Amino acid sequence: MSPRREQGLVRPYVVTNGRSEPSRNTFDLVTLVSGVPDRPLQGLTPEQRRLVALVSRGSLSLAEVAAHLRLPVSVTKVLLGDLVDSGHVLTRAAIPRAQLPASQLLQEVLDGLRARL
Amino acid sequence: MSQIPQAVPWCLGAGLLPALLGLVRQWRLARDRATALAWLEAAVRARDEEAHRLATVRLPALMHSAVAHPAPIDPLLAGTGFEQSLRQVADQFGSAVERAELRADQNAKAALKGAMRALQGLANEQQVAISEMQERHDHPAVLRDLLEIDHTNSQFGRRAQAIAVLCGSWPGRQRSASSLSDVVRGAKSRVRDYKRIEIRTQVELAVTSRAVEPVVLAVAELLDNAARHSQPNTLVEVNLQPAHHGACIVIDDAGVGMDPREVELAGQLLGGQRSVDVTRLGDPPQFGFAVIGVLAARYGFSVSVDTRSPYGGVRAVLFLPTELLTQITPEPEPEARITTDGTLDPAPLPEPSPEQARAPRHRATPHHHSDPHQPDGPHRADVHQQAGVQGQAGVQEPAARTVGPRTAGGLPKRRRREPLPESALGQETAADPAGRSPGDLVRDAEATAQRLGAFARGTRAGRAPEPDTHS
């Protein structure tokens, strides 16, 4: 994952070995990918190793992973599907944004407090 | 009267002797003439034959191979002017043929080179377009089609590139130094049966930038040969082996193999001993070995195909000398602002504010660069201590997050960040009392950073019980 990693040398079909369908269709751009520590890296392609190393210390979204690997998102999904199947990474859907109380309600509470104090 | 009969024999004898002598001379003369005539006849016949042979055998042979074979000449004609003239004719004919061939070859190469350049450019352009489409489209079905187009386009580009190289062009794209396995996988990308190619080993070696493209092209030709001449259900195995003077890419196929004549021809082509003539590559033209030979001679690697693979096919070995190899230091993965949300980390520590992370490194690194010979001063020790303290304090969070990526020697490595705003810099320097040594200045900056960090932590801790406001 050096910044000057050559682009276009290894084509995506070699990266995925010709596959275009991820093994599961639950991934989207904001899917969170986190690593499972201490899994053997034998038999993984260089891209898969890089992906595992990338998420070994925490979580990244799929879009970030793809950007770091400099691969198209769709290709990253294929890699990710394999890694989830082999148990190297975990994915989870992005945490939905917490529903904030409406500003009107807050305003009313504030007004109420002010009225009482 | 009796003397007369006595004198007659004498007279006769005296007359006969010269006659006899004359006869003998005549006979000898006649014999010599006959011999000379026979010799002349033979010589004329030999000349005829030689001229005939020149016209029907030697010149046509010269036409097919420009190398003039010294023809065995009739001993009758050895050393004669005729022989010299014949030789001159043959030589001139040979050189004329050679010149004509050279010109034809050059013309063909120039024309092909121009055409292939254009095709190469188009293929590269198309590859960029395909890459963009791959980025843009997310649907697996679209991706599948794009991958197919990409694959075909890569092969197309390789063909054009190979012909252009054979015609004396450069391999084209300049690439940055790439690891050996990426080089082989790049070659794999350009071969029709890429799925059958299996790369078994990985080595920590890289190919220097100027050699990447030629080696990729040569390996692609070898892989293509291997895949083409073996059954579709067999594998082509690639092994990478470091060697004392370089590294080897070993390609084994389980194909039909080559007979000794083919091996010899391949050896000549690969060794660059035979000049490559584009007009004589056969039909369909066989570029592979010729291209590899040209590249190997130009860039200084070597290829041999004269061993049998353990699977009965051909073992091709591409040897890269040390000059073409380099080491890629495994660069640390970028930390990439790991999104340790509260939901993922059971006890998340407050993330250091950007200012806190930025300030010490930004101040310390220029100093490090400007004065590399200075021994580890107290300020340097401070950096380490601070790092250690922070690492210990943040057990749950990776130490690398606070101190950034480290070099092999354990020194903190600078990451790309946006520079501090001018005003901030100015304020800091203005706050420093004048007359301080640079070492003090650095330590002061760290102290400032610590204070800033403490301030950030404090404000965060103060806001912590109200999670809603945090977002």
**CATH class category of the largest domain in chain B:** Alpha Beta
- According to DSSP, the number of beta strands of chain B is 8
Largest sheet of chain A: 3 strands, antiparallel
Name the assembly state. heterodimer
Calculate the terminal CA-CA distance of chain B, rounded to whole Å: 174 Å
DSSP helix fraction of chain B = 55-70%
What's the CATH C level of chain A?
Answer: Mainly Alpha
User: What's the N-to-C terminus distance of chain A?
Assistant: 60 Å
What is the C-alpha radius of gyration of chain B, as a whole number of Å?
43 Å
What global shape of chain A is seen? Answer: elongated
> What is the general shape of chain B?
rod-shaped
* Average pLDDT of chain B: 76
Report on the biggest sheet of chain B. 5 strands, mixed
Could you tell me the strand content of chain A as a percent range?
5-15%
Q: Note the run of SSEs of chain A as H and E.
A: HEHEHHEH
Structural class by helix and strand composition of chain B: alpha+beta
Description of the structure:
The complex is a heterodimer of chains A (117) and B (471). By secondary structure, chain A is mostly helical. Chain A has one domain (12-97): Arc Repressor Mutant, subunit A (Orthogonal Bundle). Chain A has five helices and three strands. A three-stranded antiparallel sheet of chain A has the order 2-1-3. In chain A, helix 3 (62-69) packs across helix 4 (73-85). Chain B is α+β, with helices and mostly antiparallel strands. In chain B, 58% of the residues lie in helices and 8% in strands. In chain B, strand 6 and strand 7 (314-321) form a beta hairpin. Chain B starts with a helix and ends with a helix. At the A-B interface, helix 1, helix 2, strand 2 and helix 4 of A face helix 2, helix 3, strand 1 and helix 4 of B.
